[in-house]
Write a structure and sequence with these properties.
The complex is a heterodimer of chains A (about 375) and B (about 375). By secondary structure, chain A is α/β, with parallel strands linked by helices. A seven-stranded parallel β-sheet of chain A has the order 3-2-1-4-5-6-7, with helices on both faces. Chain A has a six-stranded parallel β-sheet with strand order 10-9-8-11-12-13, sandwiched between helices. In chain A, helix 12 links the parallel strand 8 and strand 9. Chain A is elongated and about 75 Å long. The mean pLDDT of chain A is about 95. Chain B has about 375 residues and is an alpha/beta fold. Chain B contains 16 helices and 13 strands. In chain B, strand 12, helix 13 and strand 13 form a beta-alpha-beta unit. In chain B, helix 2 crosses helix 4. Classes of the chains: A alpha/beta (about 375), B alpha/beta (about 375). At the A-B interface, helix 13 of A face helix 10 of B.
């Protein structure tokens, strides 16, 4: 049986449906899956091994861990040592890599999949040392932000990666810009939604019940909420009657509340805070326009769900979003950091011929069902892992 | 008169340490208390500092010493405070006792709290006042923090218990009066006009822009970056901040392809900033909400032409077109237009505006004027 090791920051929680369904699917397909991550021991439906943290306990466990490594995996340790020498990593560096990844080395999976490329940083030679295939996923933070903080983070990774997965073509282009060879097999597997959970609303494209806008996402800078509120203020100045629902919580709540007060938008903006995912279909059903004002966005599941439910969508051109919404076909795409353009897009939708709006909403809903359904993603991942 | 300044944590921003030193120079007996952070170097000279560590062995040591001091000097108060802290777990009890006992042990004539939010942790002190208590209400803590209903309610409950309120602008005074019936006094921060001055108002190529700020959404740095990205002439921005640059601004700078046009510096001493200010052509102050804008006052003192956002009370500082330029806050297009306008102005127009700003500064913000106002403020408070 093929052994696949998934490297994560922490074991997926109950609400992380994507990772949970992916792991469940792999287990059902007869794969021996082990999740390697930090965090605490717990009861999971999959096998979970903890990556030891770098703390004072190293003094206690170091001799025992190394004895175990040399007895059970002498060959891998020798190979890792030689690779470290080749890459000019000193003995201390080698010992650190071996100790911190002892669970992975002992487990020795056939495939080592880093679900976020930042997790592969400092572990680049590990897969080669244990004769495993090294797969790296590029999803968002790890390709868009991590290299800005650590410009050399891909220096070794480009040489040891065997297979690449990313969630948008934008990121794949970015991966190649960072020096990953075109010859490394690269797979585009976008996020997907359970389309059965988001039935099409009763009147897609119809705005007769009033303009009800919705934005779903954590209140963090990446989502460009400040630009969304400026857009709302412009719409108010232009005399549009609307209600804009913001669903989510996060560190920008103070800013949001201040801006609402500052622009006198109390009658126009509703800040819902956190709403359980199960209630999203109901919330979407009460709205007719979805707006995503992100400045940095991998692909965005919430936009897929909104399109699936038949809402008219307006998104910015941030990173993977223009692949999620096709401009003038399934929604409108506007330049990021441009509230004026976003306000124009809302006004354009309002002024648009109703048949065109209906067609746009229906095309979007059909496209999500056809291209972004969970079943498609499952199939794509099966192919990716060679199941 | 003995004044105890509660500064929450040390080090403190330059404008606070300046005002404390001014009180000392005016002949007051001044003491400072707060949590002393690692690497702190006192800017207060001979003014005594009373540390209030909140955790670790230091906290335990101070706790033992302060329990003893309070028990010996005011046993009834010590018992009362000990019983009151019973509501906390052991660790927090030590912290709270350390925080509160110092006010009773030192027996000042007036306690001045430097940050409004600190009141939320001083409920006991406000209900058991050993002397009159005054508070400084500053920009963000009054304009922004009360958007949280919990903080708003706490302010409404605690601010009326304070005897005198100090604010840095009329706009803040109006806002505070909704929370408390107690007297509110506007005292500007002092700015020394004795700093190196700008002499040549001919703009350089590229135009040298500067802002002195802190990375926080309220400072409007993203608005500034958006505006700069669409300027049509060569420019360079020096951004001096008191904190390291967060990833969101690094991302925005890369995304807008401004990486070669912006220099970010942080932890630059105030004296150094004052020395380099005259080398720049224009100071930009893009804050969305501000109390007074001390960095802008310093730029005006250095004779720099200034563009500032129309934050609450900005019109108290500058008059658009005469001693500076104001743009619509949180509006990058308006800021871009303002920068364009300043650069289009003649050298003499920019020089006139800077000279006009400097005259206003000398009339309203001179240390000797501000110092007298502070003395008056504490005298009045002491009479309560």
């Amino acid at each position: 049986m093929r052994k696949i090791g998934l490297v994560l920051t922490a074991p997926p929680t109950y609400s992380e449906t994507f990772l949970n369904s992916k792991i469940r699917n792999m287990i059902e397909a007869g794969i021996d899956v082990t999740v390697f991550s930090g965090g605490k021991k717990g009861k999971f439906f999959f096998r979970h091994l903890i990556i030891p943290p770098l703390n004072w306990k190293i003094v206690l466990f170091f001799p025992w861990v190394f004895l175990k490594l040399y007895i059970l995996r002498y060959g891998s340790m020798l190979k890792l040592f030689r690779l470290c020498q080749k890459e000019n990593i000193g003995v201390v560096g080698f010992l650190k890599i071996a100790y911190l990844n002892s669970t992975i080395i002992i487990e020795k999976p056939d495939v080592l999949h880093y679900e976020f490329s930042a997790l592969a940083s400092g572990r680049e030679m590990l897969a080669a040392a244990i004769d495993a295939e090294m797969i790296v996923s590029f999803r968002g933070y790890d390709i868009a932000l991590h290299p800005l903080l650590k410009p050399d983070c891909f220096k070794l990774m480009v040489r040891y990666t065997d297979k690449i997965h990313s969630i948008s073509n934008f990121y794949i282009r970015r991966v190649h810009q960072y020096g990953f060879s075109d010859e490394i097999p690269t797979y585009l597997i976008t996020p997907a939604v359970n389309t059965a959970l988001f039935p099409i609303i009763s009147n897609p494209g119809n705005l007769d019940s009033g303009i009800k806008i919705i934005t779903i996402g954590r209140l963090i800078w990446q989502k460009g909420n400040q630009y969304a509120l400026r857009t709302a203020s412009l719409l108010k100045e232009r005399g549009l009657k609307f209600i804009w629902h913001f669903v989510g919580e996060g560190q920008e709540m103070e800013m949001m509340r201040f801006m609402v007060k500052c622009y006198h938008l109390e009658k126009y903006i509703v800040l819902h805070g956190r709403v359980p995912h199960e209630k999203m279909p109901e919330l979407l059903a009460h709205c007719n326009i979805y707006v995503q004002s992100s400045v940095q966005e991998g692909f965005c599941n919430a936009v897929l769900e909104a399109q699936c439910a038949g809402l008219l969508t307006i998104v910015t051109d941030a990173e993977g979003l223009p692949e999620n919404v096709l401009h003038r076909i399934t929604g409108l795409v506007v330049p990021r950091r441009n509230p004026s353009a976003m306000a124009d897009a809302v006004m354009e939708l309002v002024a648009m011929d109703e048949n065109m709006r209906i067609q746009m909403a229906q095309t979007a809903a059909a496209r999500v069902r056809q291209e972004f359904d969970l079943a498609n993603q499952k199939e794509a991942f099966n192919k990716f892992y060679g199941i | 008169m003995k004044i105890l300044f509660d500064v929450s944590a040390l080090p403190v921003p330059g404008f606070i340490s300046r005002s404390i030193r001014e009180m000392y120079d005016a002949g007051m007996e001044v003491m400072v208390t707060g949590q002393v952070k690692k690497g702190f170097k006192s800017p207060f000279g001979k003014i005594p500092i009373y540390n209030r560590p909140i955790a670790g062995w230091k906290a335990s040591l101070f706790f033992c010493y302060r329990v003893m001091c309070l028990w010996l000097s005011q046993p009834a108060r010590a018992r009362h405070l000990w019983r009151w802290t019973n509501r906390f777990n052991f660790k927090d009890r030590i912290k709270e006792f350390n925080r509160l006992s110092i006010y009773y042990i030192l027996r000042p004539d007036v306690i001045h709290i430097q940050w409004t939010k600190a009141l939320m942790k001083l409920e006991y002190l406000l209900e058991n006042k050993p002397c009159p208590i005054t508070v400084s209400v500053r920009g963000t803590q009054m304009f922004v923090s009360p958007v949280d209903p919990v903080i708003d309610q706490k302010y409404r409950q605690l601010l009326p218990l304070v005897d005198r309120v100090h604010v840095v602008s009329e706009a803040l005074a109006r806002e505070v009066s909704a929370y408390t019936p107690q007297p509110v006094m506007v005292i500007n921060p002092s700015v020394s006009p004795e700093v190196p001055k700008k002499k040549n108002y001919k703009t350089q190529t590229p135009v040298q822009l500067i802002t002195v700020t802190r990375f926080h959404w309220v400072k409007g740095i993203n608005v500034l970056l958006d505006a700069l990205s669409v300027l049509e002439f060569p420019w360079h921005l020096t951004l001096i901040s008191s904190n390291p640059v967060p990833i969101e601004y690094i991302y925005q700078i890369h995304d807008l392809q401004l990486i070669d046009r912006i220099t970010i510096k942080h932890n630059i001493p105030n004296e150094t900033i004052c020395e380099i200010l005259p080398d720049y052509d224009l100071f930009i102050f893009p804050g969305i909400s501000e109390g007074r804008g001390n960095a802008m006052l310093e730029a005006m003192a250095a004779g720099l032409p200034v563009i500032c956002s129309g934050f609450q009370g900005s019109s108290e500082l500058i008059q658009h077109g005469s001693d500076g330029w104001i743009f619509q806050k949180d509006n990058s297009h308006s800021l871009k237009m303002a920068i364009d306008q300043v650069i289009r102005e003649t050298d003499s127009q920019r020089a006139n505006a800077a000279a006009c700003a400097l005259t206003n500064l000398r009339n309203k913000y001179a240390p000797e004027i501000i110092s007298k106002q502070w003395v008056e403020f504490f005298r009045e408070a002491n009479l309560v």
